[in-house]
Specification:
Radius of gyration: 20 Å
Number of helices: 9
Helix content: 25-40%
Shape: globular
Strand content: 25-35%
Length: 312
């Protein structure tokens, strides 16, 4: 069995933004993940899906526009499609890389649903932009369906969906079984397929879940030793983007909260990662969260790069 168990959260740069770019990106990503396996990590991998689910949503919307006999595809189905094809590319690239290194370890993708609260405030103030630019007439059609849209002057309108907080990972026992067997697991892709539980029935929600938030929950549920969040910067910075920018190599959960209170982290980029680290550490006080880039992760797990966040 591997000595260390970790959830790895992959950002957009690990996957690319188009189908062909993804094929190239996952080969690079597979090398970094294989490095961690060689460092004796059991990996459960989750990933973003923003560009992918947006692409699928655009394609299915256009299909409906051209062929009116096709039923419109809801967001939950688009999310499931993105999980499937992103997981397929990652698992094949990683399997090939591991075999090239003489490591015969199964890599599996679990199609994962995540329950959300239908009364979550996020449903009343959607923030996640998806899909194509629409005309004013198309936007009116979406509004009549009960959907939200956002106007971009000079460009058109785009659909906006909610980003509720995750509650439960429906397939957690299947994920745990594979992780306990020391296999590599890809799960909760794109934050998971958001569903609302109604008695014994799971119904898809028109929403997306923040992938770092679900990575935090997944790491806690699996009692992981580490939560590794990979992004496009090598570490966390104070005063990011200013002339006073300074790297942070280590901090405690309380120090991270203080930096949040100071407004140090941007809402759409680093803030969700810091909040995910704090949430994970609240459940696993002897664990550690690591934030770094794909290119630096091999050195970061050895303490030579990245930002490490601990409980105290």
């Amino acid at each position: 069995m591997s000595r260390k168990r970790a959830v790895v959260s992959l950002g957009h740069n690990a996957l690319g933004y188009t189908t062909e770019a993804q094929w190239d990106a996952v080969r690079v990503t597979a090398k970094a993940l294989a490095d961690l396996v060689e460092e004796d990590y059991q990996l459960t991998i989750t990933h973003s899906n923003g560009p992918q689910v947006s692409m699928i949503h655009k394609a299915m919307t256009e299909l409906r526009r051209i062929y009116i006999d096709y039923t419109p595809v809801p967001m939950c189905v688009c999310s499931a499609m993105s999980q499937g094809y992103v997981g397929y590319d990652i698992q094949n690239a990683l399997r090939s890389e591991l075999l090239a290194r003489g490591i015969a370890k199964p890599v599996s993708t679990i199609l994962t649903q995540v329950t959300v609260d239908p009364y979550d405030e996020a449903f009343y103030e959607p923030t996640k932009v998806i899909g194509r630019y629409m005309s004013g007439d198309d936007a009116e059609i979406e509004i009549k369906k009960g959907n939200y849209v956002k106007e971009y002057p000079g460009k058109g309108f785009r659909r906006v969906v909610a980003a509720p907080k995750p509650i439960d990972i429906v397939e957690i026992e299947a994920i745990r079984t594979l992780a306990d067997a020391d296999q590599v697991v890809i799960a909760c892709g794109g934050g998971g397929i958001p569903v609302i539980e109604q008695q014994h029935v799971l119904k898809g929600a028109s929403a997306v879940i923040e992938k770092d938030a679900i990575a935090s929950r997944l790491a806690a549920e699996l009692s992981c030793d580490e939560l590794i969040i990979l992004t496009d910067v090598p570490c966390v910075y104070r005063d990011y983007g200013s002339e006073n920018q300074a790297p942070v190599s280590a901090m405690t959960s309380d120090e991270a909260k203080a930096l949040i209170a100071q407004g140090q982290f941007e809402a759409g980029t680093m803030l969700p990662k810091i909040e995910a680290a704090i949430g994970y550490l609240a459940s696993r006080k002897d664990g550690r969260a690591l934030i770094t880039s794909l290119g630096e992760v091999k050195e970061a797990v050895k303490g030579r790069a990245g930002t490490v966040i601990t409980w105290d």
